[in-house]
Amino acid sequence: MCHYHHLTLSERENLLFFRAQSYSISRIAAALGRDKSTISRELRRNTVNGKYLPITAQQQYARRRKACKPHKRLENAELFALVKNLFLVHHWSPEEIAGRLQLEHQKALLSYATIYRAIYAGMFDETSSSHGSRGAVRRLRHHGKSRHTRQYQERRGSIPISHDISERPAGAANRSRRGHWECDTIAGKTGKACLVTLVDRKSRYLVGGKAAKKTAQAVNTVLLQVLQGQPVKSLTPDRGKEFAHHAAVTEALNGVPFYFPRACEKISVNIDLL
Question: What is the pLDDT of residue 25?
Fold first, then answer.
C-alpha cells in the first residue's frame, strides 16, 4: 500500500472525535475531505475490540509502510550493483541470481522473491531503457515481446489459467482457514487508475492499494506490496486481464497458487465491503 494516500495522525484524531459525536461515515468523509471508502477502510482495519485509537492506527500504518520498503540487503551498494548487472545486462532470472549468490557465499544471501519485489518496485528501472517507461519489469522472461506480426491474433480477452476454482483446498472452499484471498479491482473515476482489493475468505479482513493503471504489471506490484506480512495460501481473482501475469506473483510468493472461476462466473468481493 505504499502508493496509497493514507490518513494523517491529525485526521485520525478528528475521525475519533466525529465518531464520538455519532457522525455517519458519509458525514465524516465530507468533513475530512476524503472518500467514504477511505474512512470505512480505516475503521475496518484499525478497530480492535470495538475501539478505534488514532495512535494505534498510526503505529499500524507505520509498520505496514515499513514493510513496503525494499529489502534492506539491497541497500548494500555493491550487492545492488551486482544483482542489477546480472538482471539487466546478462539477462539472468531472479532464481538464477539468488542461486549463484548462495553458491558463492555458502548461504542464502538474497532470496529470488526479494529480487522479484525489487523489480516490481522499480528499483532497477532506468529512464534510458529501450523499454521506455515500462521499466525493468519488462525484462522478466515470462513477459515476452510486445511487437506483433501481421498474422498476430488478438488474445487479450483470455488469460492463462493455472487452476480452476473447483480445485481450491477445503480450507478455502469452506472458509475454515485464513490465508485464502479473493482479489478484485475497482476502476477509478478517470478510468486509468484502479483500487486493488483482497479479502481473506475466513476473517473477511480487507487489504488493498492503488494501482496507477489497470494493467497486469501495475496490479502485480500492488498485490506483492499489500500481501507482505500476511498469511497467503491461495489467491482467487476473476478472469480480468489485469490478472493475466499471475504467474509472476506465484513465483514471487514461493509458489502460492491462483484459482480462477469458470468463464461464465465472476468473483466479486467488494459489494458488501465498500
Answer: 92
